[in-house]
Amino acid sequence: MNLRVFLVAILTCGMLVGCYRRQKDEDTIPRVAQRDPAIEVQARNNAALYNQTPARMYKTKKLPSITYEFDSVRPPEYAYELLDKVATVMNEHESIHLIMEGHADLIGTDEYNYWISGARAAALKSYIVSRGVAADRIRIHAYGKERPITLDTSSEGRRANRRVELQFTNREWKAIF
Asked: Distance between CA atoms of 104 and 118, rounded to whole angstroms?
């Protein structure tokens, strides 16, 4: 009987040690990172800005950014309504200019990312020009992966970095660049 009590005590101790080790191992396992706050801010700002009227766009000079699918230069379907509003504002106000800044995610070579970020902005410029806006009123800058919103490497973080930012200005080009 003493042997039976002894064996039960040893097994119980072994189980307690195993549970303690398992708990300790679970504490050292990396947790999934929370969503980067910069992505949340961008999403909130874009949601508010997409529904602006052309008059409100002109007054605030604030425009949402347009995000892209991986390895794509074709504007997403949701962007065309926004681009039509931008063209309306520019056609109604001859003094206004548009700056387009293309950005890419962190995947790929520097050369490719500069090219694709410029090509995305050029595609948007081409669409706006097709709506009657003079091409010399729109400037494009390609930044590649130099200016990410987030360093989050999840698919959501990379998508936030694949964007073209739009900005109205009333200043003459010589005063800007």
From this structure: 9
CATH number for the domain that contains residue 124: 3.30.1330.60
* Predicted TM-score (pTM) of this structure: 0.73
Query: Does residue 77 lie in a domain region?
Result: yes
- Residue 31 lies inside a defined structural domain of this protein: no
Cα 121 to Cα 65, 66, 154: the distances in Å are: 11, 10, 24
Q: Which domain holds residue 62?
A: 37-176
Q: Do 98 and 88 touch, CB atoms closer than 8 A? A: no
Question: From CA 18, how far away is CA 51, in angstroms rounded?
Answer: 57
| Confidence at residue 164, expressed as pLDDT on a 0 to 100 scale | 95
Angle ∠(131,136,138) on CA atoms, nearest 5: 70
Q: What is the pLDDT of residues 96-138, one digit of tens each?
A: 999 999 999 998 899 999 999 999 999 999 999 999 999 999 9
Which value, to the nearest 10 degrees, does the dihedral of the CA atoms of residues 77, 81, 82, 87 take? 120
